Structures are given as C-alpha cells and as structure tokens.
Design the sequence.
C-alpha cells in the first residue's frame, strides 16, 4: 500500500491496522522499543502508536499537513534505504503530538517527524537540524 493509500485508509473504519511497524532505530527516548502497534478508532486524523516491546512507550501521531506546514521533509538516500523506500513518494510523514505540554494547545513536534513506509511496515524518526523548527508547535486547541 502506498503512502497515499494509507492516507485514504485513515477515513475508512473497516480497515485493519493491527500489523506492527518496525522502527530499526526506535523512537526518541525509546531506542530499544522497535515494534509498534497502531491503534486507530476509525475517525479523525490521530493515531495512537504503542510499543509492543515497552508498553509505556505510546504516542499520538497525525499526518503532516502540507497546507499548514509546507512541503514534507525529505530523507537522504541512506535513511530511505533504512525503511526500504525507493523514493520520497513512498513515505508517509507523521507528527508526534503532545497533549500534555500546554493547557490550551495540543502541540506537534516539528523537529522530529516520523517517516513511515506503509508497504514495508518500517518507520524512522528523523531529527531535523533546522534551529527554527518548533518542538511544541500549537497544533490544535485542547479538546473541551
């Protein structure tokens, strides 16, 4: 399945997201947690990913929004190889959300987005070097 197909699937409540994704390098703060299950309730654009190796490692993620943020990041050839992505179009970019950092906003980490290759079920968190990128970008108002 292509990244574009995965985006479309996020609106279909009948699809199965039970197959784990492997993160060869883990995620920030959890380098040993490499297998993640995706939990999607079938509505909205927020997915919970939880480590199968270390259940305390759980994150909310949402798709990159080109209208708000501009072009998606790019991966080097070596990084694409790590997740078996032949081209940038094979990658679905996700942002890690933090509902606890701010009382008014759910924030998004623009500094460390996640690249997913849906076909290979591989993921990679990419720490971006640009100093201007926010770790706590106001993404959406806190739900009431």
Sequence:
């Amino acid at each position: 399945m292509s990244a574009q197909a995965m985006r479309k699937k996020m609106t279909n409540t009948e699809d199965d997201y039970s197959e784990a994704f492997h993160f060869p390098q883990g995620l920030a703060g959890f380098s040993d947690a490499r297998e993640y299950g995706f939990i999607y309730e079938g509505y909205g654009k927020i997915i919970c990913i939880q480590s199968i190796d270390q259940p305390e490692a759980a994150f909310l993620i949402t798709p990159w929004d080109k209208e708000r943020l501009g072009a998606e990041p790019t991966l080097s050839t070596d990084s694409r190889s790590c997740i078996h992505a032949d081209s940038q179009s094979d990658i679905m970019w996700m942002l890690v959300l933090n509902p606890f950092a701010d009382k008014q906003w759910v924030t998004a980490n623009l500094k460390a987005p996640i690249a997913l290759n849906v076909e290979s079920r591989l993921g990679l968190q990419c720490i971006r070097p640009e100093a201007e990128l926010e770790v706590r970008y106001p993404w959406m108002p806190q739900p009431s």
In short: Residues 80 and 136 are 26 Å apart (CA to CA).
